[in-house]
Amino acid sequence: MAEAPASGYLVEPARLPEQAAAVVELWSQALGYAERRPLKLDWFYLRNPAGQPRLLLLVHDQRVVGVTGLGGRHLGWQGRELDAALMGDFAVDRHHRTLYPALLLQRAALEQGLARHELLYGFPNAKSLPVVRRAGYQVLPGMGRHARALRSEAYLPAGWPLVLRRAVGAGLDAVFSLRHAAGLLSAGRSLQEQWLEGPDARFDELWARARASLGDCVLGRRDLAFLRWRFEPRAWHRTRFVVLADARSGRLAGYAACEIEGAAMHVRDLLVQQPSARLAAQLLRLAARKAQAQGLRSLSMQCGGPPWLLAGLRAAGLRLREAGAQPMILALAPGTPAPLAQASWYLTGADSDE
């Protein structure tokens, strides 16, 4: 049902597939990457394992001039299952980018989203923050960007002679590699490294153990069905999984989902069977070793989470480069526990909509 008209604008639910072309055209104009937009519509809005999401359209003179999406997401916290919606793909036609149209669309998403879900959350760009604050969302720190240089030469002063930069860089790389190799050896031989092209049936059992042990965190579902959907191969990126598996039973102790982009390897998701900085660090060291062997310059991970996870990143040599690199917005429906806003949120790239 459409929102009441105001100043020529109204908000209504999208009718798919009839209005798919209008949505894709607006996304392409406002967000770029035109070749990806039809695939995003199919993947996120038509094949979401948490149920069919909702697209809201801002209409002016019978023309679609704005769009935002609400995608279902299952969260858990302290033994409670939460029905959430992930907000994404907010876009407004360039001729209508004033405060009122954007605010009307965001308030409609807030009202309609909380009528169907216990909470809404999302990761807007910095330009959208004033609008979402005014619409009534809380803004939380979200995720920070952590990184580790793998080729030190590229980060030494450009004014140094090339021979000196190469020599010093090689020496630093050797020291760092030895230190982290020692960390891998100290972890023992009970767990073996494996690289997988995609998740397998063992991931469901790992998810069951992790969900039970990480119950104090607000944690999004990461079962096999979700991971296969979230990280399905696409033309512009491919994710591989490094896992630690018991040498005898093959049971998984944890995984890191890794994607190469340019000269960097990005860890898009990481999960371990129990709160363990050691396991998290071991997975990240394995990812770094693979990246280094492939000649990549850096390893990075965007995340937010409990102290043990951040300690694992530091132990693996990743340092916080940008706090609050990806802020999170949050809105709670009446009856949803208010302490959720202050809880420890376990967030990685897997929790975003891209």
Annotation keywords:
354 residues, alpha+beta, Aminopeptidase, 2 domains
Question: What's this entry about, in short?
Answer:
The chain has helices spanning 20-31, 37-46, 99-116, 129-135, 162-186, 202-213, 224-230, 277-293, 307-315; strands spanning 9-13, 54-60, 63-77, 80-92, 119-122, 138-149, 191-196, 217-220, 239-246, 252-261, 264-272, 298-303, 319-332, 344-346. The protein is α+β, with helices and mostly antiparallel strands.
What does this structure look like?
The protein is of the alpha+beta class and 354 residues long. It has nine helices and 14 strands. The chain has helices spanning 20-31, 37-46, 99-116, 129-135, 162-186, 202-213, 224-230, 277-293, 307-315; strands spanning 9-13, 54-60, 63-77, 80-92, 119-122, 138-149, 191-196, 217-220, 239-246, 252-261, 264-272, 298-303, 319-332, 344-346. Strands 1, 2, 3, 4, 5, 6, 7, 8, 9, 10, 11, 12, 13 and 14 form a 14-stranded mixed sheet that branches. Strand 2 and strand 3 form a beta hairpin. Helix 3 crosses helix 4 and helix 5 (162-186) crosses helix 8 (277-293). The two termini are 28 Å apart. The mean pLDDT is 89.
**Helical proportion?**
25-40%
Poorly predicted spans: none
Percentage of β-strand residues: 25-35%
Overall CATH class of the largest domain: Alpha Beta
Q: The CATH topology of the largest domain, please?
A: Aminopeptidase
From the alpha-carbon coordinates, what is the Rg to the nearest angstrom? 22 Å
CATH superfamily of the largest domain: Gcn5-related N-acetyltransferase (GNAT)
Count of extended strands? 14
Helix-and-strand structural type: alpha+beta
Global mean pLDDT: 89
Q: CA-to-CA gap between the ends? A: 28 Å
The major beta sheet can be summarized as: 14 strands, mixed
Write the H/E string, N to C.
EHHEEEHEHEHEHEHEEEHEHEE
Overall geometry: globular
- Total of domains: 2
How many helices in DSSP terms? 9
